[in-house]
Amino acid sequence: MRSLISRLIAEDAALEVIGVARNGMEAIRKVRELKPDVVTMDIEMPEMNGLDALMKIMEQRPTPIIMLSSLTQKGSSATITALQNGAVDFISKPSGSDSFDLFKVKNDLISKIKQAAQIPLKNLIRSNITIPKVDLARKGKPQTGLPQIGTTRGFDQILALGTSTGGPKALETVITALPASFSYPLLVVQHMPPKFTKSLADRLNRLSEVQVVEAEDNQLVLGGTVYIAPGDYHMTTVQKNKEIRIKLHQGPEVSGHRPSVDVLFDSISQLKNHKRHFIIMTGMGSDGAKGMLSAKEAGAQSTIVESQESCIVYGMPKSAIALGCVDYTIPLHLITSKILKVTGALKS
Questions:
Q1: C-alpha distances out from residue 254 to 48, 234, 258, 270, 319, Å
Q2: Which residue from 288, 283, 286 is spatially nearest to 312, judged by alpha carbons?
Q3: Which residue among 92, 175, 244, 330 is least enclosed by CB atoms within 10 Å?
Q4: pLDDT confidence bin for 133, thresholds 50/70/90
Q5: Which pTM was predicted?
Q6: Where 4-aspartylphosphate occurs along the chain (predicted)?
């Protein structure tokens, strides 16, 4: 695998492989010695695995790291942990091990390496230092993974959030800071393949005071619950009488994505009986910008984007700002407090 990956990367004239490592211990040493611009690293390695090596590298010499992940449930869970501990992105390895199988992900790998090389190091360091590691045993919420039916059923406001590269860690920062008393639903599109979105929702649910679930088709939307769009499905909402339900579908990709932030935002914009809030955080490209503009024109209560100073990749927020549809541009660590203020959950 090391040989195949090195060869695929070296086929691009803009990239140079300056070293390979057989295990996590060797990876830490070579990063220190060679000072690479980007590291690709397998999660499963002998002697020291990729998760442990990732954390050591981020402590000693913060470097953009792209994880290579298997498509198993164990692999997806470990990948989410890696993303929330400092990795900037990941590649899903094909199930086979020959060069043809790996060639299937070549373009994606090359693209993500070049993108990672552009990440401002100060943002990477700030993200790794300022976001606290949350104690999984700290929360007292029942870990059923299902919304608790009670006083959180009714709501008059709804929030929609879109993010991509750097999103899992950004989502952890925002969602884990929501208090248990937060009484509105939050629908989230994170660009991510199937299986990984379920692992992301499960981890965030363990860490958070609010309920976090991977959305299901025809699911009743409840207040105090975060719904993560499943990979490869667009997430929309339909309203019947006083109920709002989630509608999932596999329509064409929009802005190159499924799920798409634009699709979610356009759908939430149609909910005329609710105050609607829209948020865009770190991510490459422009998905969500047009949807936020439409939302603003349709009477959105607030539009919020993450500021450049904290974004791992500034593309999505920058695109929304360029369209002139943003009310608030703020750093990541202040987004939750802004959400609480604009919804009235925190008085200014």
A1: 40, 9, 7, 18, 15
A2: 283
A3: 330
A4: very low
A5: 0.90
A6: 42
Residue 265, CB-side half-sphere exposure with 13 Å CA sphere: 31
- The per-residue pLDDT for range 50-67, each reduced to its tens digit, is 999 999 999 999 999 999
CATH code of residue 177: 3.40.50.180
- The CB-based long-range contact list for 20-23 (8 Å cut-off, 24+ gap) reads 22/46, 23/47, 23/48, 23/53
Q: Token pair 């329509």 is at which residue?
A: 251
Whether the CA torsion 282, 283, 285, 286 is positive or negative: it is negative
Collapsing DSSP to helix, strand or coil, 188 comes out as: strand
- Domain membership flag for residue 302: yes
The tokens describing 304, both together, are: 């919020």
Q: How far is CA 91 from CA 67, 98, 139, 287, in A?
A: 6, 16, 31, 20
Which residue range is the domain that position 36 belongs to? 2-118
End-to-end CA distance of the chain: 55
Do residues 94 and 242 both lie within one domain? no
Beta strand 234-240 with 157-163 is unpaired
Q: What is the tens place of the pLDDT at every residue in 136-145?
A: 444 445 544 4
Distance CA 100, CA 339 (A): 47
Q: Is residue 135 part of a domain?
A: no
Q: Do 172 and 80 belong to one domain?
A: no
**Which residues are marked as active site?**
164, 191, 287
The pair phi, psi for residue 288, each rounded to 5°, is 105, -25
Number of domains in the chain: 2
pLDDT score for 100: 57
